[in-house]
C-alpha cells in the first residue's frame, strides 16, 4: 500500500513530463502570487506519501502545513465523508440545526483546555477566520477596543489578521490596516540578549509586554493578548512556560482575555491534544483557543472555543457565516478526533519528536550551520545559521535544502522571519522506516548543499 512505501524518484527530471505540463497550465490559469516552488503534482496520497502524476513518490514532511496529522486520505475519514455526503452536504447553522455541528461542539468542549467549566464552541472555515472571530468575541465580552500580539506571530491574511501577523511579506502594500493592534516582543530564547541568563531573559520579555501598556495602549483598553503557544511561521519557537504564566497573571490583573492560537499546534502535533495542555499541567489556562488545520483531516474547518459567559456576551449577528460548521467537515473532524485518541497519536507525536531530536541534536554538534533545535513533541524546528558564533540566518542554505531534498523525494518547508528554519510537520502516522529514510535524505542534502560537492548531487 502507498502509505507504507518509501520515497522514490523515477523520472530523470522533476517535475516529470506530465507534472511539467500541469505546472505550465497552473502558471497561465492561476495567480503567480499564490506561489509554489515545489516540483510535485499530486495524483494520489496516503499516510505520509504523495505519488505524483509521473509516478514519483515523495515523503511529505509538510503535511499540508500541519493539516494532515492523521495522514493523507485516512480511510476512516474518507468513509465518514462519504457517509455524510449521502445524507446532505450543507445546512447553514443559522437556518437549520444539524447534529454533526452539535456533536463536534460537545466534543470540543470536552477536550479543549480553557479556563472555566462551562464551554461553548463555534465553527468557521480557516485559521484566519477563527482568529478574527476570537478577537471579536473578546471585544464583545470586555467592551474594549485593542489587542496585543507578538513579534514573529502569524495569524492569517484577512485585513485584521494581516495587521496581527508580524512578517510584513504577508501584508506588503495592503494597508491601511485596522487600528488597535499593538505588538510586544515574543521570547525567542535562541536569540535572547547574549549577556542574559534564561531567567533574566524571561523578565526582560515580560517587561517588554508591560511597556506596551505605557507606550501603545493603556491596559484598560486592551481586550485580549493573542499568542501562539509554539510559533509556526515565526520559526517554531515555543513560548517558555514561565513567561506564559506571567502573561496569564498580567491578563488576570488587568482584566484582559488570553487567546491561544492553536491553529497549527493543535490535534496532537505537540505531543498533547493541544499545546495548552502543557499550560494546564503548569496550573493555568487561556480564556479562548482557536484551532483549525488538522481538525478535519484536510476538510476546511476551524473552531473557536471559550467559556460560556464569554460567548454569551456576543450580540446576535456578530458571529457566524454561511459555510461555518459544514456538515461534511464536521463528520470528518469527529472521526479525526476519534482516531487521534484511539490510536495514541499524541504519544506517537512524542515518540517521533524524541527520535528527531536525538538525530537533530547530533547535527548541532556535527555541522557548523545547524544552530538550534527546538519545539514540542512532533512539532520541531531546525534553525540554520552561517556560523554558530554570529547566528546569522542562513536563508540561502534552507532554500537550497528545500529544492535538493525534493529532488530526492522528501518535501520540507521553511519558517522564520528570515526563512532559515526547517519545520517538521510530518503526518503522525508516518512509519519508523519512512522517518529514517527522511532523516537520511535531509542529512545527505545538508552535506551536498554545505560541501557543494557535485558527487553528492
From TrEMBL:
Extract the PROSITE patterns matched here.
AA_TRANSFER_CLASS_3 (PS00600)
* Keyword annotations of the record: Aminotransferase, Pyridoxal phosphate, Transferase
Gene3D superfamilies to which the protein is assigned, alphabetical? Aspartate Aminotransferase, domain 1 (3.90.1150.10), Type I PLP-dependent aspartate aminotransferase-like (Major domain) (3.40.640.10)
* Cofactor(s) recorded in Swiss-Prot or TrEMBL: pyridoxal 5'-phosphate
Transferase: present as a keyword of the record?
A: yes
Q: What is its EC number?
A: 2.6.1.19, 2.6.1.22
**Full protein name:** (S)-3-amino-2-methylpropionate transaminase
Q: What is the source species?
A: Clostridium pasteurianum DSM 525 = ATCC 6013
Amino acid at each position: 500500500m502507498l502509505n507504507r512505501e518509501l520515497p522514490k524518484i523515477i523520472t530523470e527530471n522533476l517535475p516529470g513530463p506530465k507534472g511539467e505540463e500541469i505546472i505550465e497550465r497552473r502558471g497561465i490559469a492561476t495567480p503567480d502570487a499564490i506561489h509554489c516552488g515545489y516540483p510535485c503534482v499530486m495524483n494520489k496520497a496516503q499516510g505520509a506519501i504523495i505519488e505524483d502524476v509521473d509516478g514519483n513518490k515523495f515523503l511529505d514532511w509538510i503535511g499540508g502545513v500541519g493539516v494532515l496529522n492523521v495522514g493523507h486520505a485516512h480511510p476512516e475519514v474518507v468513509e465518514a465523508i462519504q457517509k455524510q455526503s449521502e445524507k446532505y452536504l450543507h445546512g447553514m447553522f443559522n437556518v437549520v440545526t444539524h447534529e454533526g455541528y452539535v456533536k463536534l461542539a460537545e466534543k470540543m468542549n470536552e477536550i479543549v483546555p480553557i479556563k472555566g467549566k462551562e464551554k461553548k464552541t463555534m465553527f468557521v472555515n480557516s485559521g484566519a477566520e477563527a482568529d478574527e472571530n476570537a478577537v471579536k468575541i473578546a471585544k464583545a465580552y470586555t467592551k474594549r477596543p485593542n489587542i496585543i500580539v507578538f513579534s514573529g506571530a502569524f495569524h492569517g491574511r484577512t485585513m485584521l489578521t494581516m495587521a496581527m501577523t508580524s512578517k510584513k511579506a504577508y501584508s506588503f502594500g495592503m494597508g491601511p490596516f485596522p487600528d488597535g493592534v499593538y505588538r510586544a516582543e515574543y521570547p525567542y530564547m535562541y536569540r535572547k540578549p547574549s549577556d542574559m541568563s534564561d531567567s533574566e531573559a524571561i523578565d526582560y520579555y515580560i517587561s517588554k509586554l508591560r511597556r506596551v501598556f505605557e507606550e501603545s495602549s493603556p491596559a484598560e483598553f486592551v481586550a485580549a493578548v493573542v499568542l501562539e503557544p509554539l510559533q509556526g511561521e515565526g520559526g517554531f519557537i515555543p513560548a517558555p512556560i514561565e513567561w506564559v504564566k506571567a502573561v496569564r497573571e498580567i491578563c488576570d490583573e488587568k482584566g484582559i482575555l488570553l487567546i491561544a492560537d492553536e491553529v497549527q499546534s493543535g490535534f496532537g502535533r505537540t505531543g498533547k491534544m493541544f499545546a495548552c495542555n502543557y499550560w494546564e499541567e503548569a496550573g493555568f489556562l487561556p480564556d479562548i483557543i482557536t484551532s483549525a488545520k488538522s481538525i478535519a483531516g484536510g476538510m476546511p474547518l476551524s473552531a473557536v472555543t471559550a467559556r460560556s459567559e464569554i460567548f454569551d456576551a456576543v450580540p446576535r449577528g456578530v458571529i457566524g457565516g454561511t459555510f461555518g460548521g459544514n456538515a461534511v467537515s464536521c463528520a470528518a473532524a469527529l472521526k479525526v478526533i476519534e482516531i487521534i485518541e484511539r490510536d495514541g497519536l499524541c504519544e506517537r507525536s512524542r515518540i517521533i519528536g524524541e527520535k528527531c531530536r536525538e538525530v537533530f541534536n547530533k547535527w548541532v554538534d556535527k555541522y557548523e550551520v545547524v544552530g538550534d533545535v527546538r519545539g514540542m513533541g512532533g512539532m520541531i524546528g531546525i534553525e540554520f545559521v552561517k556560523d554558530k558564533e554570529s547566528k546569522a540566518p542562513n536563508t540561502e542554505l534552507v532554500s537550497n535544502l528545500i529544492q535538493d531534498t525534493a529532488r530526492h523525494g522528501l518535501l520540507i518547508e521553511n519558517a522564520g522571519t528570515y526563512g532559515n528554519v526547517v519545520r517538521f510537520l510530518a503526518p503522525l502516522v508516518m512509519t519508523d522506516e519512512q522517518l529514517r529514510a527522511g532523516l537520511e535524505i535531509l542529512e545527505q542534502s545538508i552535506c551536498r548543499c554545505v560541501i557543494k560537492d557535485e558527487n553528492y548531487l
